[in-house]
Amino acid sequence: MKVFLKILILIVSITVLSAWTFRLEMDTIYRGADASNMIDEFQAYGLSKTTMIVVGIFKVLCAILLLLGIKYEKLITPAAFVMATFMLAAIYFHVSISDPFIPTLPSSLMLLSCIAIIFLDKKVNTT
Question: What 8-state DSSP symbol labels residue 72?
């Protein structure tokens, strides 16, 4: 179970770090509202570039904290909870502009992964 927890942490962290670093300007099928980069996507949701930067900083910080949580276990649940909250907000914004299933899928999977991380972390650390 501890191995699965670490795998989920790695998947969430690497996915978020890649989306908010080298894929920030890339056009992917997962962009909302047919946006070609992250700035266009946030604008499609009615959000500013400043909001995008703040969200990015928090998501990258949470991803790093999750990775550090592999060594310092007390970081896992708080980081996963904050990340899950951001993923819930991402799903809301995708739905609010009637995005199809594919652009909404990554944030949905990340939300489910964060919830699983929280439950697994509690289970691993109570046994």
Answer: S
